[in-house]
Design brief:
This protein has about 475 residues and is α/β, with parallel strands linked by helices. It has two domains: about 75-380, Trimethylamine methyltransferase-like (TIM Barrel), CATH 3.20.20; about 390-420, no CATH class. It has 19 helices and 19 strands. A seven-stranded parallel β-sheet has the order 6-17-16-14-12-10-9. A four-stranded mixed β-sheet has the order 2-3-1-11. Helix 12 links the parallel strand 16 and strand 17. Helix 2 (about 20-35) packs across helix 10 (about 250-270) and helix 12 (about 330-345) runs parallel beside helix 13. It is globular, with a radius of gyration of 23 Å.
C-alpha cells in the first residue's frame, strides 16, 4: 500500500498509456514526413525549405528530425502575468490547470432580458468585467465577437474592451497579422515597453490551422510574428472526427497532433526557444445534426488524451472545458459542463478555455459562466485529493473526544475545516424551509442575480487614463486606414 501513496495523494486522470502516446506521436510524425502540410504563406514556405523540409509548391513535408528538434528547443513552461502589476499569476506547466472563457461567439444572452442578441463591444466589456470578479476564472477570452464596429478592425476593439475591464491574462484572436501587430503594440504600451512585455507577457495569441493539414496565410504569418516578437502563442487545431479528420479517435488525434506540431516547427524555426502552447478542440461531427459537438463524451475523452500527450512531451496545453451543446442554461448544460471541467482538471491541461459557451460555441452566457465558477471550485477540490500525515490523521483528537463526543469545539476542527472543505457560492446546502423563505430560487435564479450584482457593483482596476488614450489612438488609427 505504501508504494501507491503518491498516486492516491491527488486525483489525476490518464486516458492513454505511454505506449499509446508513442504510437500516436509516431503516426503524427509519419503524416508530416509522408503526407506533409500546406502553407499558404511564402515566408513560411521559405523558412521551412531553409530548415530542410521537402517543398513541392506549397506542400511541405517535414522530416521527423525537425519535429524532434523543435520539441527539444521549445520551453516546457509559459508564464502569464497580471496586466496592471506585472505579477506572474499563471504558470502553464505540468498539471497546473487554469480556466477561462472562449472567444468570438456571434450571440450573447442578455442577463437583464434573457434575449439572445448579437455580441457587441458592450457585451464583451460585460463579460470581461464578470470574469475579473470570479475567483475561479483565471484568464479572459472575449466570450463574443464585436460586431457593432467595422469588421476589418474588430479585433482591436475586442482587445480594448477586454483589457479595460480586467487585469487578468488575456487570450486574444486577431483578424489578420496587422491586427495582431496592433494588439502587440497596445500591450507594449500597457507593459511599459517591448522588453517588459517579453519578460512579463499578459497576452497570448490564439491561432489555428485549417483541418486537414493546412495553414492559412494569416495563421502562418501570426506564428512567424509571435516568434519574431518572442511572445507566447497558442496554436490549436479544431477538428471534427468523421468530418475534417478520420472518424476513429486515434486517427483524429494523429491528424490534429500533426497540425499542431507543424505549427510548432515553423514557430521554432523563426525563433528557437519561443514559448508555444499546443492543444486543440478535438471533437466529433454529430452525423445526425452536423454540429461541432461540445458536449459529447468523445470530446471529453480526446481532450483528456491530448493532455496525456502534452504531459508526455512536456509542453503547455490549451484545453477546452465548461461548454455545452444546450441552447439554454439547463440540466443538460450543467451535466456537460461539469463532466468536461472535472475531466480537464484531472487530466492536467493547462490553459482551458470556452467556459461559459452554450449552443455548441455559438452563444455566450454569463449565468453559465458563474455556475461554472462553482464547478471549477468543485473540480479543484477533487484534484487536491486527501492529505495524509500525522496532523490530518487526527489520532490524538479522536482519542481526546472519545466515543459519543463531537468535534465542533475542537481547535483541530477550527484549524482545518476551511482548508479541507470547499464551500460553493451558488450551490446551496440549506433546509427546505429556509430555501422556501428565500423565494424558492433555482440555481439559474441565483446565477442571474450574481451576474447582475457584479455588473452593477463590481469595479475592475482601471488602466491609467493616459494609457487608455494611447490604446484608443491605435484603434482610431486602424479605423482611419479603412477610409
Amino acid at each position: 500500500m505504501r508504494g501507491n501513496y503518491k498516486v492516491t495523494e491527488s486525483q489525476n486522470l490518464e486516458v492513454l498509456s505511454e505506449d499509446q502516446i508513442k504510437r500516436i506521436l509516431g503516426a503524427a510524425k509519419e503524416v508530416l514526413e509522408r503526407t506533409g502540410v500546406v502553407y499558404y504563406d511564402d515566408e513560411a514556405i521559405e523558412t521551412m525549405k531553409k530548415a530542410g523540409c521537402y517543398v513541392d509548391g506549397n506542400r511541405v513535408r517535414i522530416p521527423a528530425r525537425l519535429v524532434e528538434k523543435a520539441l527539444r528547443t521549445v520551453p516546457s513552461k509559459v508564464t502569464l502575468s497580471n496586466s496592471r502589476t506585472g505579477k506572474r499569476v499563471m504558470e502553464l506547466t505540468g498539471n497546473n490547470a487554469y480556466f477561462g472563457t472562449g472567444s468570438d461567439t456571434p450571440f450573447f444572452i442578455d442577463p437583464s432580458t434573457q434575449e439572445r442578441i448579437p455580441a457587441s463591444k458592450e457585451t464583451v466589456s460585460m463579460s470581461a468585467k464578470v470574469i475579473d470578479a470570479l475567483e475561479n476564472l483565471d484568464f479572459v477570452m472575449s466570450l463574443g465577437i464585436v460586431q457593432n464596429v467595422p469588421q476589418l478592425v474588430y479585433d482591436r476593439h475586442q482587445f480594448q474592451a477586454m483589457v479595460n475591464n480586467t487585469s487578468k491574462p488575456i487570450v486574444i484572436t486577431a483578424n489578420d497579422v496587422e491586427g495582431y501587430a496592433d494588439i502587440i503594440e497596445m500591450c507594449e504600451i500597457i507593459a511599459g515597453g517591448e522588453e517588459e512585455l517579453r519578460r512579463h507577457p499578459f497576452m497570448t495569441l490564439y491561432a489555428e490551422p485549417i483541418s486537414p493539414l493546412q495553414h492559412a496565410e494569416d495563421a502562418a504569418q501570426k506564428l512567424i510574428l509571435a516568434g519574431k516578437k518572442q511572445l507566447p502563442v497558442v496554436y490549436t487545431p479544431c477538428i471534427m472526427a468523421g468530418g475534417t479528420v478520420p472518424a476513429t479517435l486515434a486517427g483524429a488525434m494523429t491528424n490534429g497532433l500533426a497540425e499542431s506540431l507543424s505549427g510548432l516547427v515553423l514557430n521554432q524555426q523563426t525563433n528557437e526557444g519561443n514559448p508555444f502552447i499546443m492543444g486543440g478542440v478535438f471533437t466529433i461531427m454529430d452525423m445526425n445534426t452536423t454540429i461541432f459537438a461540445y458536449g459529447s463524451p468523445e470530446f471529453d475523452l480526446m481532450m483528456a488524451a491530448l493532455a496525456d500527450v502534452s504531459n508526455y512531451l512536456d509542453l503547455p496545453m490549451f484545453g477546452t472545458a465548461g461548454c455545452t451543446d444546450s441552447k439554454l442554461v439547463d440540466e443538460q448544460a450543467q451535466i456537460e459542463d461539469a463532466l468536461s471541467i472535472l475531466m480537464t482538471a484531472q487530466s492536467g491541461a493547462n490553459l482551458n478555455h470556452d467556459v461559459g459557451y452554450i449552443e455548441h460555441g455559438n452563444c455566450g452566457s454569463l449565468e453559465n459562466l458563474v455556475i461554472n465558477n462553482d464547478l471549477i471550485g468543485y473540480a479543484r477540490r477533487i484534484v487536491q485529493g486527501i492529505e495524509v500525515n500525522e496532523e490530518t490523521l487526527a489520532v490524538d483528537v479522536i482519542d481526546k473526544v472519545g466515543p459519543g463526543g463531537h468535534f465542533l469545539g475542537e481547535e483541530h476542527t477550527m484549524k482545518h475545516f476551511k482548508n479541507e472543505t470547499y464551500y460553493p457560492d451558488l450551490f446551496k446546502r440549506q433546509f427546505y424551509e429556509n430555501w422556501e423563505k428565500e423565494g424558492k430560487k433555482t440555481l439559474f435564479d441565483r446565477a442571474n442575480e450574481k451576474v447582475l450584482d457584479i455588473l452593477e457593483n463590481y469595479q475592475p482596476e482601471p488602466l491609467p487614463k493616459d494609457v487608455q488614450k494611447k490604446l484608443q489612438d491605435i484603434v482610431d488609427r486602424a479605423e482611419s486606414k479603412l477610409d
